Amino acid sequence: MNHLSDRILNMSTSATLAMAAKARELRTEGKDIIGLSLGEPDFNTPDFIKDAAIQAIKDGYNSYTPVDGYVELKEAIITKFKRDNNLTYTLPQIVVSTGAKQSLANVAAVMLNRGDEVILPCPYWVSYADIVKLNEGVPVEVKTSISTDFKMTPEQLEAAITPKTKMIWFSSPCNPSGSVYSKTELRALADVLQNHPDIYVVSDEIYEHINFVGGHESMAQFEDIYDRTITVNGVSKAFAMTGWRIGFIGAPAWIARACNKMQGQITSGANCIAQRAVITAMEASPEKVKYMVNEFKIRRDLILDLLKDIEGFKTNIPEGAFYVFPDISSYFGKTFRGKTIHNATDFSLYLLEHALVATVTGDAFGNPDCIRISYAASQEQIIEAIKRIKGSLS
Ligand code: PMP
Ligand code: GLU
Description:
Blueprint: H1 6-9, H2 15-28, E1 34-35, H3 47-58, H4 71-85, E2 94-97, H5 99-111, E3 117-121, H6 127-134, E4 138-142, H7 154-160, E5 165-171, H8 183-194, E6 200-204, H9 223-226, E7 229-234, E8 247-250, H10 253-266, H11 272-283, H12 290-307, E9 323-324, E10 335-336, E11 339-340, H13 344-355, E12 357-358, E13 360-361, E14 371-374, H14 379-392
Parallel strand pairs: 1-12, 3-4, 3-5, 5-6, 6-7
Antiparallel strand pairs: 2-8, 7-8, 9-14, 10-11, 13-14
The structure holds 4'-deoxy-4'-aminopyridoxal-5'-phosphate (PMP) and glutamic acid.
């Protein structure tokens, strides 16, 4: 008999983290795996941020922080929202958490009742569906494809709305498709919501700076939707700070207050040293981390170019983040080295075994025709990985 709760038994394991763990395990067995599964910048955290953390330790920051974050950090986040996104937030609207993942978990916990529907344009980030389900919500997938650059159209949104719809969650730039919604496209989605005043939006903007098309557009910029939008952001990606675990929201004050209450019973707030360091990150001009964005763009171009040479890899042109999400469904039913590929999971496992390249199955993102390849790896690794993939499929 299993004594674990139904809650955890019904939860899927994070496919991104599971693949990264598998790659790590194979490496300890001596296999030369190239890891293109995890969405984690391969850069080091910039020195000016590390120095701020060292200084915080020396200055004796070691106590519990305010549950929703240091006031100085929340002020720096408010300044960042104004400077980068032209969004106006006040102190009671900001909550700092242990990564954007916890920000999302808080929002789900405080907003969803059993049976509430959450619209997820597919492909969506791996953890959305399980965070929603954990909180007894019902994910409603809206399928998109390369033909609409993996973006949800206003018509699709309207068609997905039911009396039970509580929220819409999406990321732009999108993990895993790299798609970036323009201002016009966001406005068109907001127009649909004008007729549905009880629907809230989670706008996950964690990749905002890793954008190759110029400016980032925030959903909360539209006055008519501002009071219904929770803007999620964090430092993991643009500042190469995944392990520091700091994320944050800007939200209506009543939602922020509820997240603060939730966090007060669950974590007591985010790590004090990391919070001090993030003050420095927030105050810095985004130009200071532009060298990483420039390198990601070079790699994006490189990997798209290399993938063109492999038959059966159909891609959109990702405009942000650091992933490509090729449709590889033309391989389904084919056999290589005695192994028949039935679906994207088989394909991803085949690449792990025979090309020694770790990717993630599209199933984890709600799209069973694709795999996700992260190009947060060196150019040499990308070149070698694609060469191996090509070799394993010939
Ligand atoms: N949202 C998206 C779209 C992501 O890709 C990630 C990746 N980790 C997160 C949220 C969570 O970020 P973190 O918890 O590291 O701040
Ligand atoms: N967001 C990253 C990814 O999608 C990190 C892993 C995770 O948090 O699941 O790979």
